[in-house]
Design a protein that fits this description.
Layout: E1 2-5, H1 7-13, E2 17-19, E3 25-28, E4 37-44, E5 49-58, E6 64-69, E7 74-78, H2 83-97, H3 106-114
Parallel strand pairs: 1-7
Antiparallel strand pairs: 1-2, 3-4, 3-7, 4-5, 5-6
InterPro entries: KOW, Rib_uL2_dom2, Ribosomal_uL24_CS, Ribosomal_uL24_euk/arc, Ribosomal_uL24_KOW, Translation_prot_SH3-like_sf
Main location: plastid
Keywords: Chloroplast, Plastid, Ribonucleoprotein, Ribosomal protein
Length: about 120
């Protein structure tokens, strides 16, 4: 379950999205809970939803139940970094850096036409 990173995190890490994890801080960008911010308390992979802190619905008996939010409807504003996640960021950043590797430039094409 991946979610987009915020613009400042995208520019910092050169990565567009990351798998969402518990303790990441997110902002909800769609739906009735739009513009709410909070920490991810649970990733419910079976239902493909996440539960965010302070995003709850009150039941008839007064109990508060966390509302499931689809991960595509949130933006990660702060990552919980550990060694594995840092390794993923490095690997993805390296792949972005090698994007033009093996591509022909206009100068190469022009030199090929000279023969």
């Amino acid at each position: 379950m991946s979610a987009n990173l915020s613009k400042d995190l995208q520019s910092k890490y050169n990565v567009r999205s990351m798998p969402i994890r518990k303790d990441d801080e997110v902002t909800i960008v769609r739906g009735s809970f739009k513009n709410r911010e909070g920490r991810v308390t649970q990733c419910y992979r079976k239902k493909f939803v996440i539960h965010v802190e302070r995003v709850v619905k009150e039941k008839v008996n007064g109990a508060a139940v966390p509302v499931g939010i689809h991960p595509s409807k949130v933006v990660i504003t702060k990552l919980k970094l550990d060694k594995d996640r840092k390794k993923i960021l490095e690997r993805k950043n390296r792949a972005v850096g090698d994007k033009n590797k093996g591509k022909f430039t206009e100068a190469d094409v022009a030199m090929a036409n000279v023969d």
